[in-house]
Predict the structure.
Amino acid sequence: INAEYMGSFAPMALSLSTSLPLIGRSSTDRIPIVGYGTWLARENEVYEGVKCAIDEGYRHLDCAWVYQNEEEVGRAINEKIASGSISRDDLFVTSKLWNNFHRPELVRPAVQDTLGRLGLNYLDLYLIHFPVSFRPDTVEATEQDQMDQVPLSDTWRALEQLVDQGLVRNIGVSNFEIPDLMQVLAIATKPIAMNQFETHPYYQRQELVDFCTKNDILVTAHTSLGGSANAMKSFHASPPVSQDPTILSIAAKHSKSPAQILLRWALQRPTIVIPKSVTPSRIRENAHLFDFELDQSDMAAIAALDKPGLQGCYCHPRTPWLGRSAFTGSTDHYYG
């Protein structure tokens, strides 16, 4: 990947304001390497969380239609803009196209709905949330006949039109495996700016990270802290990565929290991170990653924690629409 990408991740050169160019664009768009995630927050929590994050210096906000909280996120953003503490240009806002909007004719209405909820005129980055499609009347597919068969190439071309129409500035994907990326790369006329996927010490996905790097696709790591409280927690094959003895030992060595070690490791790999919390002290802690550095022995010890297959996967380890279990007509066997 280009020299600026690697140079920006020189360990002691990092800061909360560090950002990376979105490769392939002729503009000056840059994405901050630490963002604020908004998944799994109860009503009104994400509103307060976003305001706190902005006050703490976060400028990258990660959203999605399916999180069903974009109105709260937008209310917080626009209150901060109205107060004069930030401008829209200060922020980098990402959202995602849900699986039931993959048909090309549904893509523009979907992003317009998201923009309306957020109260924004454009998105900095819009991602295809998963490389699978549902029928338009289905938000969560629990039966095989609720799946749709929309080619990824068709959906991608519709996203490219959003850039031309000024509704989004950059486009990318989320939770895409190498074969999915190859499908899009084969037909794309605009760069895949990002692949956002689960990666952490128990589920490192190094082959996928390397493929993205080789193809000038930035990587955002979601579930960096292990997702121990997410909706699939009843089906995790591994205990929380934050409780791993190696992580605890390295945290004690640096006088940092396990979460700070996990996030710092992700930054030094290098990947972008989007930790989520609605607790002000943790929002603040998750931003304080730049006054220490993991040494080679730390990085090697953490690299040795990787688990095979889906044993370290916390996000959708048994989801049938990803081919990880059979459809049963309910979510009982893959959501808690």
The chain has a mean pLDDT of 93. The radius of gyration is 19 Å. Residues 219 and 271 are 5 Å apart (CA to CA). Residues 104-118 form the longest helix (15 residues).
